[in-house]
Amino acid sequence: MTEWSKINSYLHGKSDILILIHEKPDGDCLGSALALGLALESKGYNPEILMPNKMPEIYEFLPGQHLISIKPPYLLPHDVLIIAVDCADTKRFEYRLPKNSVGIINIDHHISNTSFGDYNLVDAEAAAAGEIIYKLLHESDIKITGDIATCLYTAISSDTGSFSYSNTTYQTLQIAAELLAKGADIDSIRYNIYEKKPLKDLLIIKKGLDNLYLSPEGQVAACTIGYGDLSKNDLLTADTDGLINILRSTEGVEVALLFKEVAPGQVKLSLRSKSFYNVNELAQEYEGGGHPRAAGCTIRGNLSDIVDEVLQKAEGALKGRGDNERSN
Ligand SMILES: [Mn+2]
Fold it and tell me: Dihedral of CA 128/88/239/243: which sign?
């Protein structure tokens, strides 16, 4: 039995379908949700992608925008099929799941996924949720149109850092090649995602590097940005992937940490590692999670206390490790 036929059994007899994505949506969850939505629409279903806030500007070019419903968080109805995409746990989406639902399908690739669905299609080997959606559609009789291919290519390209991170596999590239063959608009993706970044994303790199910390052994690089700095400079919504990637890409650095105080006393920590340290485990100590090389969590408390504690943990765990574990 294919994964598609299992999911198809939940679709049977339904018309309305709610698609959930995670807070602070990224290219993978948006591309995956839009691709799935367009695919379901082509089969006569009525899918709706729920978001509490408007579409981030850089993703406005993606096909299928008519499927997006901007609605404040609410308790979802129990009689509508719900499909969550790229969400590791129920805290990652802002809507509340009903009890006794007719069906909750959980499609994800986070190793920290809590299997919250009635049916869980979780593949931690997949580089992006977009890979899983591609395989599902490939098994189905749904045609992968140029529009669907553009959404899926965006999803996979986003989560692999344009096919450069260690999660990129033979299969990732094979799927990407298939998507190009099916008409993914790579020129528009390149322009919109990689060559049209908001100025904020550049300014937050500047702000972050003002406050760069490097551990004595050079294995941990960290940046801290307080709430005052973020709000004063209108940087609360800036994308910080660029900043943390600069930290990780520095020679000798194994762990990159970004402490962002998103509200007074509320610190969003992003974690990345280069080749051996499992940042998912560290994030889980703070009820977060993600992947072994990229994870996140939110910690409440005093910013500098939090920074001290996390740095101590990361540096302690890295002591004496490195040279023989580095795979490259
Ligand atoms: Mn993802």
Answer: negative
Distance from the alpha carbon of residue 228 to the mean position of ligand 1, in angstroms:
30
DSSP letters for 228-250: HHHHHTT-TT---HHHHHHHHTS
The predicted-structure confidence for 39-78, as pLDDT tens digits, reads as follows: 999 999 999 999 999 999 899 999 999 999 999 999 999 9
| Distance of alpha carbon 110 from alpha carbon 22, whole angstroms | 12
Q: How far apart are CA 280 and CA 111, in angstroms?
A: 8
CB-based neighbours (< 5 A) of ligand 1, an ion:
28, 86, 129, 159
C-alpha 129 to ligand 1 mean position (Å): 5
Q: Assess contact for 40 and 156: CB atoms under 8 A.
A: no
Pair 256, 248: CB distance under 8 Å = yes
Distance from Cα 107 to the centre of ligand 1, integer Å: 10
As a residue count, the chain comes to 328
| Residues 245 and 232 sit within 8 Å (Cβ to Cβ) | no
DSSP state of 274: S
Q: Which helix (H) or strand (E) holds 153?
A: helix 146-159
pLDDT at 327 over 50: no
pLDDT, tens digit (0-9, with 9 covering 90-100), for 105-121: 999 999 999 999 999 99
- Sign of the alpha-carbon dihedral angle for 27, 29, 32, 34: negative
Three-state secondary-structure class, residue 160 = coil
Q: Say yes or no to pLDDT of 170 above 60.
A: yes
Residue 271 · residue 289 · CB < 8 Å = no
Report which DSSP code applies to 92.
Answer: G
All domains in the chain, ordered by first residue: 3-194 (3.90.1640.10), 199-318 (3.10.310.30)
Report yes or no: 150 and 160 within 8 Å, Cβ to Cβ.
no
Greatest alpha-carbon pair distance for the chain in Å reads 61
Ligand 1 centroid distance, CA of 25 (Å): 10
Query: Quick one: which of 241, 242, 193, 238 has its CA closest to 60?
Result: 193
Instruction: Write phi, then psi, for 295 (nearest 5 degrees).
Output: -150, 175
